[in-house]
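Exercise 7. Predict the joint structure of the components listed below.
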Amino acid sequence: MTVRVRFAPSPTGYLHVGGGRTALYNRLFSQGRGAFILRSDDTDQARSTREFADDILESMRWLGLTWDEGIEVGGPHGSYRQSERIERYGEVADQLVAAGHAYHSFATAEQLDEFRKAAQAAGRSPAYDGRFRLDDDEIARRLAAGETAPIRFAVNRPGETSFDDIVRGEVSFDHAQVDDFVILRSDRSPTYHLASTVDDVDFGITHVIRGEDLLSSTPKHLLLTKAMGAEPAVYAHLPLLLGPDGTKLSKRHGHTAVNAYRSAGFLPEALLNYLAILSWSPGEDEELVSLSEMAERFRLEDVSRSPAVFDVTKLEWMNGVYIRELGAAEFVARSLEFVEDDLGRDLDEDEMKAFAGMAPLVQERAKTLAEVGPQLRFLFAASVSYDPTSWEKVMMQPEAMTAVSAACTRLAELPAWDAESIETTLRSMLDEHGMSARKGLQPIRVAVCGSAISPPLFESLELLGRERSLQRLADVAQQLG
RNA sequence: GACCCCGUCGUCCAGCGGUCCAGGACUCCGGCCUUUCAAGCCGGCAACGCGGGUUCGAAUCCCGUCGGGGUCACCA
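Solution:
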């Protein structure tokens, strides 16, 4: 049996990491078993924007979550944008009315509001039970008179809808909890429930994998599907992503957009891996898995049922692991834009060489690509800017002056300028003055790199070049003297 | 408030009736390495929410309770 799943974001915001995980799980589930479809649930014209729509596609591609059918790649089911299928939803709504599954509702906002308040106060379900529904003749009369009204689905009560959710098991809802929900607004635009269900049916979706926030909407979708005379999909509701404080992940917890992680220097494979591991385990105490390994082992039945806290710290660790696994050239290629961003300009040819030489050294200590720029700033910036804390801590030491000026004179006499010779020279200088490497090298580091935290010193000196190195040492020696 | 879902270290995940005085990862704390910072390696702290059952035996099954989350729009 071939499977058909979809990811259907609304372009009313950037692709959220939670959405990214949902897309990933859909993709993993369908891998090798069927099709992964990307659809745009853009019925909310007021809140949808082109920018968000573009961001979703771009973020999906950046993550490497390719789709088999849908937006931009096309497919046999016509448009994959709901905004282009409006007539179809109206048509279905009319059919449902004709078949007695739905009706034009003339209940006023006030009536509904009052009903809900009263129900709530009495400790009953606030779901609208259709009590203000008019008889067919009256409805026809009002419609004929030119009045407009939304179409509501007529939920049968008493009744119950239950389904077997792949991750949650048997779930059931009493129809007293399901309201006569609007499927078509008075302006004949479809609501989410209608559009989404119609598309799932029309596109032959076999499995709906989505967030748990939609769990209580599922009976509506099932009722609609049945009323349309279609075979219902199998549902799987994923646990929600939470912020560190245990509430639904939102902007106030930090970054939620996939693109924010991209610009913060995260690797897509790391983010994907982390997202996968959040509510699922590849087993065998393993955590680092590639997309293809995930696809091989992924089973919806193994997805966790409890919500997961999104922990950036662990993501950072994982990103560091992925960065270190990159080939040297790959690392250079991927981090270049961050270096140039940090610098505010492009690197020239010589700088590219220095960058390539230094790259392996920063690669093993970076958790994000965004850290690469600041770590190499000393190498490319015209003048060093000294970190006050480092200066305070190191240059105020008694041996600072001696170390810097001795290094300056000894290095000036050095015939060759390579890390090895530099190291030999500086170590003999250290011996001469009876200084430990710890005490003696730090002032030199700060003088040259501007900070007590830097890539390895000797290589830094080599790549910075004789002239600039000596210049910086001399400048600092003068300041200290 | 009603309904639904969930409940193992601070966090994520493993465990699916005995092999668990509970395992892995991140964080944190030590140590080693070391020119700084990282990385790496070694070690440590740290959990089955609570109460009843069922059973020879429960983290694992049942009930209750408490706690957390979600949904209750002519938004998706």
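Discussion. Chain A is about 50% helix and 10% strand.
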